[in-house]
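Q: what sequence does this backbone want?
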């Protein structure tokens, strides 16, 4: 008599679901699954690290205090379409998220009127954009200053000092200094631009650290 095969039967769908759950668990972005009462039924490792460990059965509104998110959850469930909303979180530190709200049921989270939240962190991107904006504003100011000086010197040479050689020499010297200042600034900009273009290129030279 052959012994009964007691090994559990695992179909392909279950394997696929298990694989997806493993991927979700290891995502760098935060992931929540909520029931129809907005109670947290699952959160991945990244969400636990960012918001805390003991959040199961807590209302999402106690974790992310933003009325726009709650309204977006209601809209996603009502329309049965994926929605997204930008949310700023200030504690324990400032972060800007785009939160994607995906209505259930899904094969991973099958409860009726459930939703999953996928939080994409845009904090560093936003900071980088602000730095670029500030940088452009500062560069514009730095370029404008020598240009104003050169323009003023030229107007003086062509006007009141048109027959005064000593005054002309003085203002020519001022213009020369300002041109050098602009040249140095433009060279710095070119260096920064080259660094930005090459930041993702793998080095191909050996560099001594001694």
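A:
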């Amino acid at each position: 008599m052959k012994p009964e095969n007691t090994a559990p039967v695992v179909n392909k769908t279950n394997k696929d679901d298990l694989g997806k759950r493993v991927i979700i668990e290891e995502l760098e972005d935060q992931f929540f699954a909520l029931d129809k009462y907005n109670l947290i039924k699952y959160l991945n490792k990244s969400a636990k690290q960012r918001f805390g460990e003991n959040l199961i059965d807590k209302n999402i509104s106690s974790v992310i205090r933003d009325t726009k998110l709650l309204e977006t959850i209601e809209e996603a469930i009502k329309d049965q379409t994926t929605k997204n909303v930008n949310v700023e979180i200030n504690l324990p530190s400032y972060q800007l998220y785009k939160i994607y709200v995906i209505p259930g049921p899904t094969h991973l989270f099958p409860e009726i009127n459930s939703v999953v939240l996928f939080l994409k962190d845009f904090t560093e991107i936003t900071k980088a954009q602000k730095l670029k904006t500030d940088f452009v504003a500062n560069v514009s100011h730095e370029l404008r200053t020598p240009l104003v000086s050169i323009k003023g010197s030229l107007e003086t040479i062509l006007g009141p000092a048109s027959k005064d050689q000593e005054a002309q020499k003085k203002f020519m010297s001022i213009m020369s200094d300002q041109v050098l200042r602009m040249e140095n600034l433009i060279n710095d900009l070119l260096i920064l631009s080259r660094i930005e273009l090459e930041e993702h290129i793998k080095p191909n030279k050996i560099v001594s650290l001694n």
